[in-house]
Design goal:
With 146 residues, the chain is of the alpha/beta class. It has helices spanning 2-26, 31-42, 63-70, 96-108, 122-128, 140-145; strands at 72-77, 80-81, 85-87, 93-94, 111-116, 133-134. A hairpin with a 3-residue loop joins strand 2 (80-81) and strand 3 (85-87).
């Protein structure tokens, strides 16, 4: 009996040590995260006419007016990441991100136009003004690499 209790105790201690190691790994330095975020932010160039070099400004940001005047929200996405966005049997984009875009359009009272594009071209497209917003599977780190 004593032998099996000792085995359970050893297994419990090893499990706790492993769990503590995993938790501490997640609490690593935020310096790497901060530098990655700063690099991604430094690489973003707003579309012409939407912001000045110092950053977004209510006086120069005309994006919401453009959407209102057009009465449509142009949403860019790459429909290759189920369940977030993918092409259904009818070859139309569907999934969580499509539902989110449509709910946003419904809340704003405007039509939503989904533009399915290659992932690599999404950021360039938003910078050029091809889309009003990107609702797609993308991380800040992934965006910084493009």
């Amino acid at each position: 009996m004593e032998k099996s209790v000792t085995g359970v105790a050893v297994a419990l201690v090893l499990t706790l040590v492993l769990a503590a190691g995993l938790i501490l790994t997640g609490c690593g330095s935020s310096e790497d995260q901060t530098s990655a975020i700063a690099a991604a932010d430094a690489d973003t160039t707003p579309p012409a006419g939407t912001a000045n070099a110092a950053g977004p400004s209510a006086a120069t940001d005309v994006s919401s007016k453009t959407v209102q005047d057009r009465d449509a929200l142009l949403v860019g996405m790459c429909a290759e990441y189920p369940p977030f966005e993918f092409r259904g049997d009818d070859n139309k984009p569907m999934g969580f991100d499509v539902d989110l875009a449509n709910a946003l359009g419904e809340k704003l009272g405007i039509k939503v136009t989904i533009a399915d594009s290659a992932w690599e071209g999404l950021l360039a497209g938003i910078r050029k003004g091809d889309y009003d917003v990107l609702i797609t599977a993308m991380s800040k780190k992934g965006a910084a690499a493009v």
